[in-house]
């Protein structure tokens, strides 16, 4: 019985991780209330934890959760007289068999989650709130994971999410598919969230595993849909190119025990060459026909990494030059950090460290463990072991996933071990 309960618990967790965003999007589209959707989705998960160990995991667990959540929502609405008129219409809809036919405009956005991404990118919401809301509610990231993506404390992020929901309620922002004339204004926010979703999947901010295939796979799927819908948008092509070129390396990023393998140590024969070829073709599309966009430039950088036979033969001068362009397009401490690492590979460790030290006052980097890890690497290579150890310790304090923490512990040991 205990094994059955454990198996059911794992099944609930797997379904929740894979289908949380789609479940929530379906509920919001049906009931038009984000808070209600979140509450009944949680109740459906709790019900599954009670019933599945006894009754067994259903053949279609996602559909079971959606049906349970819809029933809970209707029960709540029945108890609220203010929703009486809405409930009458909803009940007719609930009695139908099969999916609810989408509105005509929805035909252009065939995935409910993608529809809701665009809805939550409404310009009435502050830019930082849009991204936070989409990552938390639709991508299924925890508040700390969303905070990591935005380089802010979890408490700050929690407040942003609460304010965003309040704004939606007070401004009565409709949960609907935006018209074609509204899509360009909302597209940058959606691209940013999809990229953040992919990034969290590629390098998990916490947990026992380095990667979360559920998030990376879903991000790739949604961006592919978006590219099919908006093939003329070069930044959509750029984002798809970027995530394909990066995702092509995922099999080589860990060893058989799940330990982190750095780029320079990866077996490049394990990289997905078909995915790299597709990404490289999309880079050409993204960079043709006008000034480059940020995703196109980042994709070009990723392509240079993927084309190199090894780390030493990588075209570091061109990568550093592309980071110069990116820093103009999207000036940020993280871009400056990546540029400093590229400069170190091009001009030497002293040059890279000087740039990193110039960023020491950036508040957003103080809690960003890759910054401290990069300083540790350069200091170690320069023979400044006590300073390197301090940087690695700070990075270890901030890192979340166990593979990253294990790697930092190894680097720290290497800098503190007495010479033989």
TrEMBL record:
Signal peptide: none annotated. Gene3D superfamilies: 1.10.1740.10, Tetratricopeptide repeat domain, Winged helix-like DNA-binding domain superfamily/Winged helix DNA-binding domain. The keyword Transcription applies. GO terms for molecular function: DNA binding; sigma factor activity. SUPFAM superfamilies: Sigma2 domain of RNA polymerase sigma factors (SSF88946), Sigma3 and sigma4 domains of RNA polymerase sigma factors (SSF88659), TPR-like (SSF48452). Keywords: Sigma factor, Transcription, Transcription regulation. Residues 120-168 form the RNA polymerase sigma factor 70 region 4 type domain. It holds the Pfam family Sigma70_r4_2. One of its GO terms (biological process) is DNA-templated transcription initiation. InterPro entries: DUF6596, RNA_pol_sigma70_r2, RNA_pol_sigma70_r4_t2, RNA_pol_sigma_r2, RNA_pol_sigma_r3/r4-like, TPR-like_helical_dom_sf, WH-like_DNA-bd_sf. Residues 16-81 form the RNA polymerase sigma-70 region domain. The keyword Transit peptide does not apply. Residues 186-284 form the DUF6596 domain. Belongs to the sigma-70 factor family. ECF subfamily. This is RNA polymerase subunit sigma-24.
